Amino acid sequence: LSDLIISKVRVKLLKIFLGQAKGLYYVRELTRMTKEEINAVRRELSHLLEAGLLVSEKRGNRLYYSVKTSFLLYPELVNLVAKSTGAGKLILKNRSKLGFVKYLFMSQKLARGLEREPEHVDLMIVGKLIMPEVTLTIKAVEKLLSTELNYSCMTEEEFSYRKTHKDPFIVKVLLQPKVMLVGDEIQLQS
Length: 190
Known about the structure:
The protein contains 10 helices and 7 strands. It has about 190 residues and is α+β, with helices and mostly antiparallel strands.
């Protein structure tokens, strides 16, 4: 993300607004979270407001900022942040250790830090996998996120078979909003 966006303050703010479930932040709070100068934070907030990604509202004597989820590029920006920070970054960093990965995706709820149902699949990995490495990577992600993940691993053959036979589990997983970390979603669905 920082390779594409020159302003390091803007990158930090995007990570905060697009990578966490909490909705409202005020300037001093953002200054503490980013460990940047208050004027730099204010300048970048102004740019993001002007672009239409953020909205602001006054509460008492504070001005609060939140992300505008109806922003045209919001889903793509969330996916970009999910891939380049936190769990997505850790998983992609360890990708070569996992074996041959054809598809790897995480749920949007996991990516955004939202509440997930127990039957919700957080992470799906399809390919010829080295299971001990998958387990180690999953444990590292669980430690990073301080939560237990519900994940599923299968071979390409099993995935293809279950998909063509309209297995209820696979249908449900394919219908849930996801962030593709590896592979193409159109190929995944076809």
